[in-house]
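Sync notes, pocket subgroup
Present: LS, DG
LS reminded everyone that the earlier model was apo-only. Rerun requested with 2-acetamido-2-deoxy-beta-D-glucopyranose included. Inputs:
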Amino acid sequence: MKGANTSIVIFSLLALASTFASASDPSSLQDFCVALNSTKNAVFVNGKFCKDPKLVTANDFFFSGLDKAGNTSNAVGSRVTPVNVDQISGLNTLGISLVRIDYAPYGGLNPPHTHPRATEVLVVTKGKLYVGFVTSNPDNRLFTKVLKTGDVFVFPVGLIHFQFNIGKTNAVAFASLSSQNPGVITIANAVFGSNSPINPDVLAKAFKLDKKLVEYLQTQF
Ligand SMILES: *[C@@H]1O[C@H](CO)[C@@H](O)[C@H](O)[C@H]1NC(C)=O
Ligand SMILES: *[C@@H]1O[C@H](CO)[C@@H](O)[C@H](O)[C@H]1NC(C)=O
């Protein structure tokens, strides 16, 4: 009887654990649902308009051009080229997407940001990157690594992360994200460059900065 009770408890705990587990995007109930902006030639599937499967072609699952380097002539010295559902309509409902990231030599930075809807797995194909992520409150632990060509690193969903080119050459990485539309919040831009601006008193207090410095930072984004 005691053994049976223990089994019931363990089973209940497992059932509870599986209740808490959840994927970023809902799983689809059909092979695909190629996104369509207009209702012309569309069918209604799981509450969404999808392209009529009879009209779907290989091109709905195709993108070309990730061999091309992104332009890194900008303030941070990096460029993300996304390949998500906006570039490949066939990614709709599939819970996955891709980016290419280019970094300028000596300090090209993909600045601290988060993807609210996706875990990211990144592979370096050229150069040397210092990468990291920070865990949520209250620990705010920093996990970092220096990556070279062929190295892979994971950024768990929602956590603030960055990549910094510490090499003498340009660097290139590709990353897959567990959402068709991962979203991105670049911390500095969101905080200091919000539209309209956050009251500087709020930011001065939050960041323990002089209000003048906050106002300066707000002009930079
Ligand atoms: C890269 O971007 C810079 C700044 O916007 C621009 O001046 C330059 O022409 C661009 N280079 C290429 C190759 O597009
Ligand atoms: C649908 O609209 C979005 C947003 O305007 C656009 O980025 C995308 O390319 C469009 N997709 C198609 C298949 O027309």
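DG: The domain at 55-183 is CATH 2.60.120.10 (Jelly Rolls).
LS: Residues 2-20 form the longest helix (19 residues).
Action: DG to write up.
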